[in-house]
Amino acid sequence: MLEDLKLNNANWSKGKTEVDPAFFKRLENQQSPEYLWIGCSDSRVPANEIVGLDPGELFVHRNVANLAPPQDANYLSVLQFAVDVLKVKHVMVVGHYGCGGVAAAIDGKRRGLVDHWLHPIREVHAEHKHELEAIPEERDRLNRLCELNVIRQVRNVASDVFVQDAWARGQSLAVHGWVYSLSNGLVTDLNVGIASLDDYERVVAG
């Protein structure tokens, strides 16, 4: 079973070593990424490829609708390891336009456990209800909700004790919010980055 995938793996490995014979030996001995990617599990959003990085250069956490919930031990474990052990310099929360998770959060249908997972998006939707209702096209409304969700998750990451402690001890660390477009393969920086305790206090005060 899955013979095609095994063959693809063999061809990929061969191609890597033909270009760089020491690639896997170097990868085996070192993991020192400067970036943590918190993104959606959507199969159309391949994190490393989007930003042109090789394995070992990007630490990745993915879940449905790129959430960073403060009660999720999986996400928190990744964040702590990235910040405290790997000493990443950048955390990118990356949503994408056309996100099925974002759409599912507000379409009124019941799907089971995932409804609980997506609840934070419904909270964002309620908070920005008037802005979203003023957007006439449904696709544009959902895309704006994707952006608003990323902005909320950036604040969640920045508010976490691991990140706050890193800033307090002078560690270089910035949290960014991006949205990826499936239609053209480009990321848009939402310019909501937070890179210090002072930045965070200004965001909270604002």
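[next item in queue]
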Amino acid sequence: MARTSKFDQAQVHELLLQALETERGGIQVYNAAIRAAQNPDLRKEFEEYLEETTRHEEILTRVFEQLGMDTEEQSPGRMVVAHLGQSLVAAIEMAMQNAEPAAAELVAAECVVLAETKDHSNWELIGQVALKAKAEYADVLKQAYQSVEKDEDHHLYHTKGWARELWIQALGFPAVLPPPEEVRQVETAIGASRAEQSREDMLKRH
């Protein structure tokens, strides 16, 4: 039996604070990852995602303005998100200083996946609020969500593909680079699963 619960507006406020901080941290993570990238296709991909993440931060800033929220307001959750973002940047920089370039590139790819996992989750939740909340700000969130939804799916599934293939390459096995997710322009979880399943066929063709 489904449980009913009262809509928590304060938690929506917290979600938006964390989402804005995630985008800001993502900008820094991508700047570091671009410096670590060795594969030209991967570097180009990261540069495109940096541009899109910057746009997402601008979209959320406008949402804050429309809702009368302070973009610099802090909360314990937002502080944690900021710390995680800084830690991912520090991890990439540590790898660049201490590891071989290929290993640092792999660390960067994994850090991007971690950042994008949180980012994708934030926007999924914002989409849920926009769909289910009977509040005046639902339309504002819906417009923002629809503006970034496709980008967020693309970022997560493609960066996971890059990280997987870079690991496979590092293990000494044949890798598909760019990954199947990139080749097939995957935008959904189902598409990502099918792309991963197709990699052996792609290897045979090459």
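[queue empty]
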